[in-house]
Write a structure and sequence with these properties.
The complex is a heterodimer of chains A (359) and B (290). Chain A has two domains: 18-50 and 114-357, MetI-like (MetI-like fold), CATH 1.10.3720; 53-99, no CATH class. Chain A is globular and about 85 Å long. By secondary structure, chain A is mainly alpha-helical. Helices cover 75% and strands 0% of the residues of chain A. Chain A is built from 18 helices and no strands. In chain A, α8 (110-145) packs antiparallel against α9 (150-164), α9 (150-164) crosses α12 (215-252) and α12 (215-252) crosses α14 (267-296). Chain B is α/β, with parallel strands linked by helices and 290 residues long. Chain B has a domain at 105-179. Chain B is built from twelve helices and ten strands. Chain B has a six-stranded mixed sheet with strand order 6-7-8-3-9-10, sandwiched between helices. A four-stranded antiparallel sheet of chain B has the order 2-1-4-5, covered by helices on one side. The relative contact order of chain B is 0.16. The chains are: A mainly alpha (359), B alpha/beta (290). The A-B interface holds A 1-3, 5-7, 10, 254-256, 258-266, 269, 273-274, 277-278, 280, 351-354, 357-358 and B 55, 57, 91-97, 100-101, 103-105, 107-115, 122-123, 126-127, 150, 153, 158, 160-164, 166, 171, 174.
């Protein structure tokens, strides 16, 4: 226990060396994340160059790749004739200017490809994580409170099933049932063909449609979100339910929960203010991890629902040995992971005064 | 003198696959108004479970039978409520309002993520329907009463920003917030440094002497007991072996078990009056728990 803070004079903490402790904490986390971004660039670069396969042949076709003159011209155009180290620093330099190269499949700047694909992925990932957190926290808390009772066992089986069912299989089955058989869900893609994308503000069609006041477009976009979000949710909800159950069980044993009950507080208050607040740090951690894995794990779901997100883009780039595209996706997912982790770290400070105030 | 809490033939059973296993058997205990009643015994003797049974806070795996009667003073109507088997509503209205509890370790019994002010006022607002401002004002007064320095500043702080002794003072303030008749103190000094134990005991004594409050002091530490308890009940393996006023118990113990417990105490404590003992402890440790 940190008793040292208490022995200090009351206000000394906020004026002691280097400003507010939380600002120092946040700054440290941001710097660490930036260093890690550099690491991510190196890893994506190396991994991409280790890929067996000839990007020249993939880009030009086997026939052109047999002509040394064309190959040499291609290699010098893309800098592939230089040593790897030079290539890496060229890559880094371009990166600083927001240039991720040109995709050899779409022939667009990778940056612009990714910036149109990312919102599509974010839209299903955010939808899935929000739903999962709501459902997972409720079910996990119920399971913890009913430990060992029938409802606990039912929830355990259901969440285990959610975790164990392969996502691609679930996606296919749900697509078949809801689209082909029941005609409840709309087809693939982000919008039906008779709708135009709303004016881009956030890139999330549902949000943009609402901002533009296009209710029809919003409903159509939301309907298209339904199945992919459901598939992703079923996976993460299983994970979250089990995790929340464990976290809440641990907190239920804490003295401060017994103390809150001894104060005669209503059960609702005990759960919200004491139990879930206490469990918020482990829950936040796993939500961050789940969100990160949603971002990178949407490849199959996006392919099945023809969802034009980074998962589809990654699949397309990888199958065409489109190195700039693959590196761009790798870098983006790595950076998103770091960003999510940074946000989680900063949120620790918001929800836990021991992180915020301890120096 | 009337009793504020009367425990009669209390039995606590642990449900096991092989049938109920008794934890506490046939406890009789009368907590007199305005007194500190010590409940002593080694760990596992059932003393903490007895205290938890008063608030209906036994673990789900345990059941209590017998009677625990909570009585109001004659001046306030003199009615009594049976706590064993009481409904959730009845217990909800009594917990924190008429019977409050202080736990062993304030570093775990106060929520680390809630401000002291919030923890002092949430049950005040719930039980007494006070406004936020009125509750804050009352909380300020409570911290002042348990002598936490700079009460206004303390309200906005978190438990980890206080020392152990101050945290326990805060926990006591939380318990006293709604003006309970009975305070259950479960090893309230065990987790504290020896140097600050005396200060907390002194505070408990003062609060009782101010009137109105009765304390059931659960501890394995007979030294603590001899310092502040008016009456001492000794438990062993779920039964009461001896119950007597402090002087009698410490000078003429009737039971072998009590004698063996007393034999383990440093000799000097037995000859001193409680005040001398507290003064001794204070002199040893000073007032450094603030």
């Amino acid at each position: 226990m940190t008793t040292s803070t208490a022995t200090r004079p009351p206000r000394a903490r906020s004026v002691s060396r280097g400003g507010h402790p939380f600002a120092r904490y946040a700054l440290r986390r941001v710097i660490t994340s930036l260093l890690l971004v550099v690491g991510v660039t190196l890893v994506t670069f190396i991994l991409t160059n280790l890929v067996p396969g000839d990007p020249v042949a993939a880009a030009l076709g086997q026939r052109a790749a047999e002509d040394p003159a064309i190959v040499a011209q291609f290699q010098s155009e893309y800098g592939l004739d230089k040593p790897l180290v030079v290539q890496y620093f060229t890559y880094l330099g371009n990166l600083l200017h927001g240039d991720l190269g040109t995709s050899t499949t779409t022939h667009n700047a990778v940056t612009s490809d990714l910036s149109s694909a990312l919102p599509a992925t974010l839209e299903i990932a955010i939808g899935a994580i929000v739903l999962s957190v709501i459902i997972g926290v409720v079910l996990g808390t119920v399971a913890a409170y009913r430990r060992g009772k029938a409802s606990d066992h039912v929830l355990r089986v259901v969440s285990l099933a959610g975790l164990s069912v392969p996502t691609f299989w679930l996606a296919l089955v749900l697509y078949y049932v809801f689209y082909f058989k029941l005609h409840i869900a709309p087809g693939s893609g982000r919008l039906s063909s008779d709708f135009n994308a709303p004016p881009t503000i956030t890139g999330l069609y549902t949000v943009d449609a609402l901002l533009a006041g296009q209710l029809d477009t919003f409903l159509d976009a939301a309907a298209h979100l339904f199945l992919p979000v459901l598939v992703l949710t079923l996976y993460t909800v299983g994970l979250l339910t089990r995790f929340v159950r464990t976290a809440v069980l641990e907190i239920l044993d804490q003295d401060y929960v017994r103390a809150a009950r001894a104060k005669g507080l209503p059960t609702r208050t005990v759960i919200w203010s004491y139990v879930l607040r206490g469990a918020s740090i482990p829950i936040l951690t796993v939500v961050g991890l789940a969100f990160g894995s949603l971002l990178s794990g949407t490849v199959l779901v996006e392919s099945i629902f023809a969802w034009p997100g980074i998962g589809s883009y990654a699949y397309q780039a990888a199958s065409h040995l489109d190195l700039p595209g693959v590196m761009g996706v790798g870098l983006l997912i790595g950076v998103m992971y770091l960003l999510v982790n940074l946000i989680v770290d900063l949120l620790y400070g918001v929800i836990d005064p021991r992180v915020r105030l301890a120096s | 003198m009337t009793d504020s809490l009367t425990i009669t033939d209390l039995r606590i059973d642990l449900r096991t696959p092989d049938g109920p296993r008794p934890i506490v058997r046939g406890i009789d205990l009368a907590l007199e108004r305005g007194r500190i009643h010590g409940l002593a015994g080694e760990s596992g003797s059932g003393k903490t479970m007895t205290a938890l049974a008063v608030l209906g806070l036994l673990p789900d795996t345990m059941t209590a039978t017998g009677s625990i009667l909570l009585s109001t003073p004659v001046s306030a109507g003199g009615d009594s409520v049976e706590l064993v088997g009481a409904s959730r509503q009845v217990l909800g209205a009594i917990r924190g309002r008429r019977v409050a509890m202080v736990f062993q370790d304030p570093s775990t019994s106060l929520h680390p993520q809630l401000t002291v002010g919030r923890q002092l006022t949430d049950h005040l607002r719930h039980h007494l329907k006070l406004s936020k401002a009125a509750a804050q004002e009352q909380a300020h007064g409570l911290l002042d009463r348990v002598r936490v320095p700079d009460p206004a500043g303390a309200l906005a702080k978190y438990p980890h920003q206080f020392s152990g002794g101050q945290r326990q003072r805060i926990a006591i303030a939380v318990a006293l917030a709604c003006g309970p008749d009975v305070l259950l103190a479960d090893e309230p000094t065990t987790a504290l440094d020896v140097t600050v134990q005396a200060g907390v005991l002194h505070l408990l004594r003062e609060l009782v002497d101010e009137g109105g409050l009765s304390v059931l002091l659960v501890t394995h530490d007979l030294g603590v007991m001899s310092a502040v308890a008016d009456v001492v009940t000794v438990m062993r393996q779920g039964v009461v072996v001896e119950s007597a006023p402090r002087e009698q118990l410490f000078t003429a113990p009737q039971h072998d078990y009590t004698r063996s417990l007393l034999a383990a105490l440093p000799g000097s404590t037995l000859e001193e009056t409680p005040d001398e003992l507290v003064d001794d402890l204070l002199a040893e440790g000073g007032h450094h728990d603030s």
